[in-house]
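note to self — DONT lose this again. spent like an hour looking for the file last time. sequence + predicted structure for the chain T wanted, 185 res
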Amino acid sequence: MDTIFKTYQTESKKIDEFTFDALITSAAEDRQGEVVVPGGISLENFRRNPVILYAHDYDGLPVAKATGLTLEPSGIVARFSFPEDGIYDKADIVRKLWAAGFLNAVSIGFIPLERSEDGKSITKSELLEFSIVPVPANQEALRRAMETVASVEPPVIESIDESASGDAWSATDEEKALIYLFLTL
């Protein structure tokens, strides 16, 4: 089967300077008229090689790595970390653009395994990777930094690193001003 890419403008929550949470997929119909069912995505092989690419560049080096995955009612949330400054210049640039809100979208690269009878839903698939990308296909998801983070932690269905912190993010005044500026653009 062929690899398919589905792109989402995503919700993002800053954990620290190098670590973020993002909604990487949801059950919303995308611009191609399809739905990828989050609960039907196999994460087993991805957990063995949790790479995050830039723009599905399979020949390039990863820009980050996933450290945790959670299935929530809204979709799959990934916690991911960029390498420290100076390890890989491209990763440094992508991290800074992500943190500043200039990059807001992710795209899952997956192999479809099963479709609904009408062909509009991909009910089973295998996640290969996800990428940070400039243009989203799923217009429903928004950066997580703009939502209020609930105090109740969602259940972890699949986890790469069970020690990942689930602390809620609290915006500084500067971050709140940036969020307001972003929302009013």
